[in-house]
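DM from R.C. (forwarded with permission)

"hey, sorry to bug you on a friday — could you get me a structure for this? deadline for the figure draft is monday and I only need the backbone to look sensible"
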Amino acid sequence: MIKLKALLKASHFGPTLIVTTIGFGFSWYYLNFFESLFVAFGIFTGQLVVGWSNDLYDLADDLKHQRLSKPLVVESINTDYLINWLKIMTPLSFALNLLGPLGLEGGLVYQLGIACGVAFAICGGFCSFAIFDCYFSRGSTASLDVARWSIAGSGSTFHQCSKGYETRSAK
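My reply, with the result:
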């Protein structure tokens, strides 16, 4: 139970839960409840990937600044344990999102959002909502599925931008 709590904390659980809830709300507007739960679970797994990747990347800085609220710093989990969970969650996230109710194209857009979130952690400042422009610029040919997934996929970028601003402004 302690390791589960540490995994959730390492995922930046507050923003993860907010993004997942927003994605569920958007999807429930267009889909039935059970399809929306499937979408939300896919979003949740993607957010875990973003949060855990960020904690791994920030470990050296967290150790340097003695951030005792971080599970990797206080060793309630270790890097190997977190990497093993990432090895499970990353392909699971891809599978859930690509095979989910919104289809391959929508799943790819969400995975682009996840990639933006992970890239932000690594590049520190890469914060783009360009996936909106990319798909909405197609005008009337943009499918409703892509529009929905663009909104959900941007959540991961928003999560990283808001969290990254707090973290980087505190340095």
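R.C.: lifesaver. The chain is about 75% helix and 0% strand.
me: no worries. The two ends are 32 Å apart (CA to CA).
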